[in-house]
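Q: My labmate handed me this sequence with no annotations at all. I'd like to see what the chain might look like in three dimensions before we decide whether it's worth expressing. Could you predict it?
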Amino acid sequence: RLMFDSSQLSDLPDLPDTIAPDGSEIRFLRSHAPGSSIVHALLLPGSVTRAVHHRTVTEEWYCLRGEGQLWRRDEKVESEIELTPGTSCDIPLGTHFQFRADGEIPLEIIITTTPPWPGENEAVVCPGDEARWTPTL
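A: Here is what I predict for the chain of 137 residues:
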């Protein structure tokens, strides 16, 4: 029989723990894996983040709720991904990216960062001419 410690469960806080450099709302989640960190990212309907890239981390995204698009560009390729519940994708180290919420409800994404998020200087905001869309945040 599989047992788990219910004291390790928690509700998502109503207010964000922080605002990411791209402008999305971030709520910290408990990660039990020493080599990564996990957050819940939320983007309100009609919002477009600033384009950013990371200095040292990679990310895995899983869309929980809402609809939107993710733009990614590295030295070789540029792509747009439809974000709908169940969509999973990655943000490799150094990739420039931006996302937006297109639907009627907030876009919600679980993000696993490897190695764990090192702090506020990790994300670098890209110059405005490098963004795919005009940011609203």
